[in-house]
Amino acid sequence: MSVSPVSRSRRRLVGLAPAAAAIAVLVAGGVGVLLAGPEHMAEVAGVVALLTLAGAAAAVTSLSLMARRRLAELQHLPDLGRRFVTHHEHGRVTRVTEGQGHLVVHLASEQVQTIVLDEAGAPDHMTPGAAETSSWRMSTARLSPPQVAALKEKLTTGDEITVVSSGVVALTGPVEKSWRLTSSNGLVVSSGRASG
């Protein structure tokens, strides 16, 4: 997964925001002391101290929220390098889009469950089943235009679709290596090849 230069610069700006706020508070305090005079220095120092405490509290809250979000993104790390199998059950094709040399099938499944396998290939643990949408890209480079039209027609008949995918858990999360789409009308598409 690559990070765009725009999001990198946003992260840098967000990271610099607490430092910029602290500098602004100190500058405001210095200006306040100069404008108020030495007789009101204690009041200005108290206000600056309160602003500094409020800024520190906001920074700690912001950092804890960022850490919580980042930890939620990394929940898959204990399974790093393990194989998985995901079952997309009771699916319906919501649309089929066509690109240069491929079709993309957009699927809404009522029940999606991922099983993480241990080192021996036996089921270790699984996610609770939930409804989910997914997209499956299939190559049409070796098919003639009439075959592509027939494939699109078979996919959009409203029949129930099941997809079983497998792959490996990587640093960025689960990465699917292969999949097999089966329709109740007899169509079978497996990692880019169609039959039926």
Provide tags for this entry:
2 domains, elongated, alpha+beta, TAT_signal, 3 helices, 196 residues, transmembrane helix, 38% strand, transmembrane, membrane, single chain
Structural write-up:
It is a single chain. This protein is an alpha+beta fold and 196 residues long. Helix content is 39%, strand content 38%. It folds into two domains: 5-73, no CATH class; 80-195, no CATH class. Strands 1, 2, 3, 4, 5, 6, 7 and 8 form an eight-stranded antiparallel beta sheet that branches. 12% of the residues are buried. The longest helix is centred in the first third of the chain and has 33 residues, at 41-73. The chain has helices at residues 5-36, 41-73, 145-155, and strands spanning 83-99, 102-117, 123-126, 130-139, 161-170, 173-183, 188-190, 193-195. The protein has three helices and eight strands. Keywords: Membrane, Transmembrane, Transmembrane helix. The chain crosses the membrane at residues 46-67. InterPro entries: TAT_signal.
